[in-house]
Amino acid sequence: MQEAGRERDRAAAAADLGGVAASVRPTVSLPPAVGLLFPRRCLWLGDHYQLAVATRASILLIVLTRRAKGSQELLCRSMFLLIYLPELETRPNLIAVSESPNDNSLSLHVAFHEMSVSFFFQLQDTAAVSTKPAKRYPLALWIGILGLIMLVAVYIFSLSLKQNGMLFGLMQTNLIEKEREKPCHDPSIPDTEIPYLHYPMPNTYDRKECACTGVRFFAILSMQRSGSGWVETLLNSHPNISSNGEIFSVKERRSNITAITKTLDRLYNLDWYSSAAKNECTAAVGLKWMLNQGLMKHHQEIVEYFNRRGVSAIFLLRRNLLRRYVSILANAHDSAMKQLNGTHKAHVHSKHEAEILAQYKPTIDKKTLITELKRSDKLAADALVNFKNTRHVVLYYEDVVSNRTMLMDVLDFLRLPKRKLFSRHVKIHTKRLCDHIDNWADVTDFLKGTPFESFLNGSRR
């Protein structure tokens, strides 16, 4: 079957190449070779090397063949764009190219199935013939199209690299090499830790003896009334940790991604002044960042920033979202009523103050309860998905309350020496959930049979 197909191809090519003597010499100009393409098929026909190429557009792609000296091999040497033939508008189906075996010049035979006309030209070793063109297709146009195709290819390739994590790996390798060249580099530090260890040079002061103390960057990612304030004070009791609170509670600092990165750069360069400043050498610096403070809106850019700057994320979430909702309502009430001597306190430092605030029992609107619980649940789930490719750890408030040793895991995560941590914060709502909700019976009946029923008895979902 294959041999029969070859015979048909040879016969068709031979017929197309007939009548060379009576051929017409067209007006044509060939530009220099611009690359090499493999031909669709190469045919052997007697003493001639031939090439058949099917075209699909008005641009005619021809691969010229040249025989090596003393050899019978077919070498596909160059690709030429034949762009000055007006007849190409007819879109020929078959182009046949051959060379004369006994001459240094190339004989190019072009056979058009749709046109019963053959063309003949002599191509010298310069591989170009220049005569007056009858019609020109602008060369600059095709160069522009070729350049555009190359740009698109490079863009798609870069996206593929980024998606597979290869680009980030290359960036980390480059970062490791740069860190090794710095005077403060410790050769005992594993390569995997180098991207997360920094030596900031503040613009506002000199670190002096702390200059070669490595600093880790972190961010506590949480939601309001999830225990983030309490956990942050515990971490700040460590002599080498500086966590600077809710920096992005100020709207101007989170107005756009440029403002966000500018604020983060200032923070991680140790140029941010707050009560978290330490007399000891800072070994970890960070902030408390609520999910609704621009974090989710610009999560793609922030993930890229975290990975590029080596920022570690500490998620602090709450399992029982109903208790969190009660705390939100109680805090909103105190913000309006200012129950502690005319001042509002989101966190208290004495049992007496906690008891005063705990006296308020909110009445929960059943119409909005399910919506609020679903919204909070989805927000936390989306955050975990969006930041899954960062270096992170996930904590739950209930787990930390029942097991303080989990904070030692956080110190290990930040590669810091373990210390006993303490906080002056006093928990406000310490009783059973039914003692903190005014319309408890209605809420119980409403949540039964829903995915949130387990919250009623304080269970963790």
UniProtKB/TrEMBL annotation:
Alphabetical UniProt keywords = Membrane, Transmembrane, Transmembrane helix
Keyword Cell membrane (UniProt)? no
Q: Give the protein name, as stated in the record.
A: Nodulation protein H
Quote the gene name from the UniProt entry: LOC100384402
Top-rank taxon of the source lineage equals Eukaryota
Q: List all membrane-crossing ranges.
A: 139-161
Output the SUPFAM superfamilies linked to this UniProt entry: P-loop containing nucleoside triphosphate hydrolases
